[in-house]
Amino acid sequence: MAGSFFRNLIRNRAMLLMVLPGAVWFLFFSYMPLIGTIAAFKEYRFSRQGFWYSLTHSKNVGWDNFKYLFNTDAAYTITRNTLLYNIAFIFLGLVFSVALAIILSEIVNKRMAKLYQTGMFLPYFLSWVIVGYFAFSFLSMDRGLLNHTLESFGIDSIQWYNEPKYWPFILIFVSLWKSAGYNSVVYLASIMGIDKSLYEAAMIDGANKWQQIRNITLPLLKPIIIIMTLLAVGRIFYADFGLFYNVPRDSGTLYSVTNVIDTYVYRGLKTTGEIGMSTAAGLYQSVVGFVLVLVSNFIVRKIDKDSALF
Amino acid sequence: MFSKTKKKRDFHHLSPGWNFIFHAVALFFAVLCVFPFLFVVIISFTDEKTLATNGYRIFPAKWSLEAYRYVFQTGDMLLKSYGVTILVTVAGTLLSLVMISLYAYAVSRKSFAYRRFFSLFAIFTMLFNGGMIPTYIIVTQVLGLKDSLWALIWPLAMNAFYVMILRTFYMTSVPDAIIESGKIDGAGEFKIFYRLVLPLSLPGLATIGLFSTLGYWNDWFNALLYIDDPDKVPLQSMLMRIESSMAFIQQNLANSSISLEVLQNMPQDTARMAMVVLATVPIIFAYPFFQRYFVQGLTVGSVKE
Amino acid sequence: MGKSKKSFGLLSAALLAFSLVLGGCGGGNGNGNAADSGGGSEKPVELIWYTIGTPQKDVDTVMEKVSEYTKEKINATVKMKMIDWGDYQQKMQVLVASGEPMDIIFTSAGGFDYVQNARKGAFLQIDDLLQKYGKGIIDTIDPAFLSGSKVDGHNYGIPANKELPQQDVWRFNKNLLDKYNLDISNVRSLESLEPLLKTIKEKEPNVTPFGLDKNHVPTVPYDFLITNMPMAVKLDTTDYKVVNILETDEMKKALRTMHKYYKAGYISPEAATVGSTNDLTKSGNWLVDRAQTQPLAENLWAAAYGYPVVSTPASDPIITNASVQGSIMAISANSEHPEKAMEFLNLLNTDPVLRNMVDSGIEGVHYEKIGENRIRNLEAAKNYDMPSYSLGNNMILYLNENDPDDKWEQFKAFNAKGVPSPILGFNFDSTKVATEMAAIQNVKEQYWSSLMTGTVDPDEYLPIAIEKFKAAGLDKVIAEAQAQLDAWVAENKK
User: Fold this and answer.
1) What are phi and psi of C73, to 5 degrees?
2) Cα C167–C170–C173 angle (5° rounding)?
3) Among C120, C430, C434, whose Cβ lies nearest the Cβ of A46?
4) Chain C residues with CB inside 8 Å of A73's CB?
5) With bands split at pLDDT 50, 70 and 90, how would you rate the model's confidence at B118?
6) Does B131 reach chain A within 8 Å, measured CB to CB?
7) Which positions ≥6 away from B252 have C-beta within 8 Å?
8) How confident is the model over B29-61, as pLDDT tens digits?
9) B75-291, CATH topology level
10) What is the pTM of this model?
11) Architecture of the structural domain at A74-307
């Protein structure tokens, strides 16, 4: 048995050599730090002898550190918000980015397309703090652009930062705006890699542009779309903190639609700073994401083995 | 390329009607994206006092170069942080590309017996995180990288997300036939990778290269944790420091002695915008740089399926 | 399939074992503190001092000079490491948790929280050290600082000797006061502001009469167990009862007034989301706001804003935990030289030469002396611009050019006026109710600002907020706090 194991190693030695640098990196930077997750089950206290000692000698509290994520009113709201927003982001983000990529690849003037794409990247560079300022300059009660425009049409100003009902749309819009350009690069690069002869053959068969897109471009994008979606599913319990904290300016009245797991944890631990509790939250988010990835990957494998993540 | 006559329009291209619509959509979205950035530039040239009185205006009441003067007076610190950022970004991207492309290629090959294992090995790291403190200990105590530029490079060298994307590119743009033909010619795995696969997967590599570059350029968190030496502080880190200091002051305004002492030295809003401009403008050129590799890879002869 | 499954298993086992071995090595040599213990008493001890502030260019050169001085006096050298304002909290947490060697740490209620981290074990208990090596500190700084900063009955740090009590004042933009001949001599309560606010609102449409930000809490005669949390004790209490501030009459009245002002347009509609009133103070478009005062504050404000500011009291000067814990220097629990650290702190708080060197730099380079106790900053001062409040006893600092001669006398008089809060020295330990605290914190973030800034109608929202707090477990927290407070009172207030 061990013999065949080593024989296998040798047969695959080239490949193993290729994964070696990356694997060692993962070992050091991702797997070794995982030891810290023990803190989720402890009442963490500092000790003179350093981190490892503190970790092992802090009081064991079992599942106590997880309670605050479940035992409260807010638990339903934050879970629902996190999930629904992420589902919207995944789905809408996909449609939008792919559409954008196709549009950019089809525009006749390639130089203009390049210019557009460079422009679309810019939101990625602005931090959420700055995006929050801009949202404010639009949505501010007395000085904002939006209210000025509404007034000129004879509609009353709206106190944007006090009305929850508009915010799902605002947040989804802002999130798409910030990431669509960045995400579309992946799809654009994929499209660029498609063999041009396929299109020629289709043209000879009499297919028009739309049929070409539907029958060649989209199916060939399927693998990358599936992978991107599966990877996004893994992060479905994580929310982009900056988006949900800075853009609504931490306005309390909006919490019913802007409080997500990450902001809840941040706010909840401001006074107590319990390391165990924040670690517990991270563990919770990771486990849920992991289970979901396993399940969806399993489903994808059943349909088309090659498209699966692993 | 633009065809000269309407009649002889290449069938490859869109009909003029649709082309116009596509232009319009792309232009609209591009403007939407560029406009706030332009706004940042305008604010950076606005006079600070009018900012407080009028708020952000597209046409400020008063223009001023004061923000840039303030930023440039830090003089060599700014230049040094540019240098640090450029160095880290270039070195980091190259390192990243090598490590990621090798790993991704290996897990893309069906003939690799441990393919599933190493794929899961990578993906798991995307989902689970040990936390700031254990990572800090590994980097500073186990690897001894405290206060070194390597502490800015190594933590970002590998990324499971990029690995998976690149793996997909390999699988879709490199036909098995090409690899088989290489094998028949007696080439080893590394040679096949280097000679046959890489040229075919240029778009994928360019994508990952671009993402890597942006990731390094924008990183400020690693500097926060690991860098003490002011000569090794990267650009975004300087920016983030100022932003989080402002947040700190606002939360602790009650203690009047802090707020005044620090406020008097704090670069105001306009200077912050100026820093955003200075930090972002160079990297805008990254996309055009990588974009020219978004071409279909050159096929080595034609392989009939 | 079976074969690859087996090799799968073996491979993962191998990798796991590999990583455990590495992890073990890492954990073992994790805390290589260069033990300076061995050797003769001749070798000076190096003290590592972590403090807050934007790192200054000349820190190392100044510390060299400081070390020369301290080497002579106490056979110790000093290395100062500065961490920027916004980074301090996070970076210190990581440094302390990872066992980084350090001796002296700056802490405060809010910048690497003092009470929190003392309880977590980051700081050394210094009761004995104070007695042995810190006699100078005990004699020099106001005793209320030391008694007020005890956590669970022990001292964990040396507060900076500066302004002791906190007092709210109403600040006024003098230009507007003069323009409309407004009299502030009768202003004291929240309600008494009304006529002035009304005048400005009518006459100056561009001015925000009452400047507020989201952290504003109306002045009420209570002390809070934890800042910005609803658990409070009345200042003139005799029974030490812990109450929910939202259920008290004083707060209800204040919130109603705030809402009245909000509806009348005296308060900015966005006050509940605004982080600071910086924009207002910069542009001068405000009439009144509320701030905490210290002696000579009016000069500071006028200098910072560029126009005159006057103030009148809104509350009495009270000594609270927050006011005592504004700036504390603690000794790290993993310090290798706690005795020397205490000796250094003792020197820092009593010796004007050392204190001023740390504060202003090197004489002749960063400042010049223009009197016995007076200095003027030189051009190079911008390379060593330190936040005085975080570096020790302020009252032995030299005076600046424009300071009055009796500056420190004024401070001492101000400190003497302070009345201790009934719960001074009591620090609520929320460990047992940590889950409820997290939920309460979120409820607070949701409802607090809009109530406190008058944005919403208290008659409508106060009951809702109280209900939500209850649902989050506030009663349990108050019960726990009451139990702890009763025990503390029994022990300390005989």
Assistant:
1) -80, -45
2) 140
3) C120
4) 439, 468, 471-472
5) very high
6) yes
7) B258, B259, C110, C111
8) 999 999 988 888 988 888 877 777 777 777 878
9) MetI-like fold (1.10.3720)
10) 0.86
11) Orthogonal Bundle (1.10)
